[in-house]
Amino acid sequence: MRKSIISALSVVGAFALPLVASAQQGIVSTTPQQGIIGLIQFANTALNDVMVLFITLAIVVFFWGLIQYIIKSGEERAAGLTTIFYSIIAIFIMVSIWGVIHLLQATFGVNNSNSAETPAQIQIGGTN
User: Fold this and answer.
1) Is residue 96 part of a domain?
2) How many domains does the chain have?
3) pTM, rounded to two decimals
4) Which of 21, 45, 59, 102 is most deeply packed, by most CB within 10 A?
């Protein structure tokens, strides 16, 4: 069990290495901010990426449990059903928390984008 956790963390760390090393173009924005604003934007982007990674991992675990349930028999089949059950609960909790955060952002008017807003006087591509 301990070896599988260490190997899973190694794989996640290998995929996260370009993010940590800032070797990937456009992590935060085309012109990164300096100071605390840049740090907050970087943390926001990193947490969004980690959230997507966790949801993807939960979906992969769900399908792994489904394969165990279909192929195996007896107690191993029950283990597959337990894996399916817990992965569905994990997906539900993660997506629910994500939804509540977006609801709070919409309620309090917090803008989640890094782009500047277009002023009301300028209409691009609109009709008169």
Assistant:
1) yes
2) 1
3) 0.55
4) 45
